[in-house]
Amino acid sequence: MRRALRIAGCSAGILITILLGVVAWIHLRYPRAAPPAQLAAASEADIARGRYLFEHVLACHDCHSKRDFRFYAGPVIAGTAGGGSWVEDEVVPTFSANITPFALHGWSDGEILRAMTAGVRADGGPVHPLMPWDSYANLSAGDARAVVAYLRTLPPVNSSPQRARAISPKEFLIVRVIGRVLPKPWVPPPAVPETDRVAYGQHLVKVAECSLCHGADFSGGRAVNIPGTGRSVVSANITPDPTTGIGAWNEDNFVSVFRSFAAVSKEPVPAAGKNTPMPWLRYASMNEDDLRAIYAYLRTLPPVTKAEDGSAAP
Ligand code: HEC
Ligand code: HEC
User: Fold this and answer.
1) What's the gap in Å between 294 CA and the centre of ligand 2?
2) CA–CA gap between residue 227 and residue 306 (Å, rounded)
């Protein structure tokens, strides 16, 4: 019996030593990082393009700004844009970072670009794995540069979302160990031609991360939290299924549904009233060609029959 205990104790000791060794090795070897790029000065056109992508296509506000869900579709609270916010997640919820010049003044443009597209911070450490840098790695070099240029023009927000807090062993494993191995140097992909509407639509859907809420097959049925309210709304089926998806919508319907949210009421939503986490307010001013490209791509998806409550309809 004693002997068995001693062997077990010994094995546990060896196992822990090996585990600590692996963690230390990962810490030394990772994240893999290329040196930050030297970027040419941004032009006015870069800033305008970056503003468009940041404000109307990409999801940066959803995690890096505070939104006011007393109002329909949660407009960004004035004075918080890019200042950082609590990001809800089932596995590793965390604070996002302040990405205004208040926090990033010491970072070069190349360092911000690297964080956004390759998951490595200016100090060489990994960016938290909730930050979807692997999606932004699909941006063309010009578009990614444009977003960085726009970040530089955000009004500084005086906030320091807290980073240091007690984390569970599960979070340690996901954030500090696995999150360290994931970053990989960015190879900018060739720009997708806007004339290829289906391919460009697919590109937009990828960088805008529609699948985050609508699911990898876009059939919806996911309960998406409305931040800060404890309520959730089921995401819609946006595949071309004629009854449970948007198969009955034509291209003009699609554009006008998005446009209609530009005129949404500025009155608070009544306590029991309908609200949504879908960023309609921002998408309402997406370029018409971009909306049409997204529609063209969504039409090519295999239709999935799935009722709004997420069940497979008969
Ligand atoms: C799903 C949530 C989410 C989205 C969407 C998102 N971010 Fe992040 N971002 C984070 C989190 C979380 C961090 C890391 C905070 C930390 O490491 O403590 C982060 C970190 C960063 C950093 C590194 C700053 C630092 O101090 O570590 C930059 C730069 C950044 N994000 C830019 C962007 C831009 C630009 C966009 C839109 C193109 C964007 N993010 C979209 C969640 C998100
Ligand atoms: C933050 C989560 C979230 C993101 C990101 C998101 N959606 Fe949604 N979307 C929802 C939810 C929830 C609904 C259902 C409630 C509603 O209609 O507002 C919805 C509804 C829709 C509808 C209406 C469908 C119908 O039958 O009425 C369309 C179309 C749509 N989304 C397209 C998109 C596209 C395209 C993108 C990416 C550019 C996208 N969504 C990104 C959460 C999201």
Assistant:
1) 12
2) 25
